Amino acid sequence: xxxxxxxxxxxxxxxxxxxxxxxxxxxxxxxxxxxxxxxxxxxxxxxxxxxxxxxxxxxxxxxxxxxxxxxxxxxxxxxxxxxxxxxxxxxxxxxxxxxxxxxxxxxxxxxxxxxxxxxxxxxxxxxxxxxxxxxxxxxxxxxxxxxxxxxxxxxxxxxxxxxxxxxxxxxxxxxxxxxxxxxxxxxxxxxxxxxxxxxxxxxxxxxxxxxxxxxxxxxxxxxxxxxxxxxxxxxxxxxxxxxxxxxxxxxxxxxxxxxxxxxxxxxxxxxxxx
Length: 274
Ligand SMILES: O=C(O)CCC(=O)C(=O)O
Hints:
Layout: H1 10-19, E1 21-23, H2 30-44, E2 68-71, H3 78-84, H4 87-97, E3 101-112, E4 125-128, E5 143-148, E6 159-162, H5 182-189, E7 196-198, E8 206-210, E9 215-217, E10 226-235, H6 248-251, E11 270-273
Antiparallel strand pairs: 1-8, 2-3, 3-10, 3-11, 4-9, 5-8, 5-10, 6-7, 6-9
């Protein structure tokens, strides 16, 4: 499994700061892409590495056109773990955020089935801000690294991001990943400004978006599923902020989490420290 090292440039940082996202060059080689595609198959057929359990049941949706996703694939799959905890991802994210250390918040393994010839929105991901789900964290300065396991564009339901929307702050009610009505959500959130840009990626490239950047995705019109592995990353000193919304990660701090408790135990591995 090999990562292809890349030095983030000042121009890359400026793009990330201006647009709220940045697309990397190819970061993982073809062998790693193939292993991650196999990891998908193994996860969806409940063939797990290690002796433990997944964080949530890996249950296939009743409708085969529906999006499948699993959180913390790294608990149950070695290839996913290798990639989402990779120091290179941490180093690049540290550069983009101007942080000295980066930890894993959680990962996602996402499978968008083919909807070729179907009239369906079941594979859609609603416009949302990731941080809307993560308000128990004391910083919005978090990053999602979305790694494409095939060439990805709007034909196969690739992500779209709203340029500059990371500067809008935390927008109330933007925890709308599971709302498949993209037009309705746009009407709700746009307030006139809405510059929608497709994330066009070759297999092995990644898009790095800020925790406040609005993004979503539409149908997969291609004949093949759209596969990705996603790492959600945070600054190394991120801590729990009480009273701001529930997230399963808070349980991983123990039975009596306290306000200000750092997310720094083994559930939140350190990827990189300067
Ligand atoms: O896979 C998608 O289309 C959206 C994924 C997403 O919202 C995310 O990774 O933050």
